[in-house]
Design goal:
21% strand; 154 residues; 5 helices; five-stranded parallel sheet; alpha/beta
């Protein structure tokens, strides 16, 4: 039986937890389903703060950003643990934690294409006025990927 490859972008919100619960209730019993949690984080800038006294003051801010990134990776591992505790075996769950390269939609699309994923599970955030002026992540993904099921969890 062919494996069902599922990509689930995860950004540590309550909406993401709802999507995680959906993935558990829908795919935990499917022994051919492999889920990959994905987070593209904004990397902390690599600045040499020792070369300039003014920049030395930035050290605490850069340390704070680095700590936030570490905590995000830890939170992604905890989401993986939740999947494992809910019936997924360890060989059916993985995660990708990498710096943002393009934009959220572009990086998700790249992952879908690179990993040959069959399903993408997205969450829907409450409508904002900016969505009237910009294309949403959901719209960018569904208009680009082909032969991929996109589940939107509300």
């Amino acid at each position: 039986m062919a494996h069902l490859k599922i990509l689930m972008p995860f950004n540590f919100t309550e909406h993401d937890n709802n999507a995680l619960d959906f993935a558990i209730s829908t795919y935990a019993d499917h022994k051919d389903a492999h889920i990959t949690l994905y987070n593209a984080h904004t990397p902390a800038p690599d600045i040499d703060v020792r070369s300039d006294p003014v920049m030395e003051r930035m050290r605490s801010h850069l340390d704070y950003l680095s700590k936030q990134i570490y905590e995000q990776k830890d939170a992604l591992k905890k989401a993986r643990e939740k999947l494992l505790q809910s019936g997924f075996s360890s060989d059916r769950v993985s995660y990708i934690f990498e710096p943002l390269k393009k934009d959220i939609a572009g990086d998700i699309i790249d992952q879908v294409l690179k990993g040959n994923f069959d399903v993408v599970i997205l969450n829907r955030k409450p409508a904002k006025i900016t969505r009237f002026f910009t294309r949403s992540v959901f719209y960018k993904i569904i208009s680009t990927v082909k032969r991929v099921t996109v589940c939107v969890v509300n």
